[in-house]
Every structure is written in C-alpha cells, then in structure tokens.
C-alpha cells in the first residue's frame, strides 16, 4: 500500500472519529438541556 494513501486514510478515519465524538457530545448536550427543561416545569 502507498504510504501517502495510508496517511490519507488515517486522516479521514480520524476526521470521522472526531465528527462522531462531536455528534455524541451534541446529543449529550441536547439530552441534558431536555432534562433541565423537564425538571423546570
């Protein structure tokens, strides 16, 4: 396998992972806000 291709692949994989973690973080934030709203009422 080409070294340049492998580096590119690793870069995309890391990007996917970070986006996934960001999505999970946003979801957790939404859930916490929802819970706070529910407790408020």
Could you give the topology of this structure?
Layout: H1 3-40
How would you describe the overall organization of this protein?
93% of the residues lie in helices and 0% in strands. The longest helix is centred in the middle third of the chain and has 38 residues. The protein is mainly alpha-helical and 41 residues long. The termini are far apart.
Q: Quick recap of the structure?
A:
With 41 residues, the protein is mainly α. Helix content is 93%, strand content 0%.
Specify the helix fraction band. over 70%
Strand content: under 5%
Total DSSP helices = 1
Low-confidence stretches: none
Task: Please tag this protein with its features.
41 residues, mainly alpha, 1 helix, rod-shaped
């Amino acid at each position: 396998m080409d070294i340049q291709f492998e580096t590119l692949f690793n870069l995309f994989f890391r990007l996917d992972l970070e986006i996934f973690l960001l999505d999970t973080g946003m979801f957790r934030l939404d859930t916490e806000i929802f819970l706070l709203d529910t407790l408020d009422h």
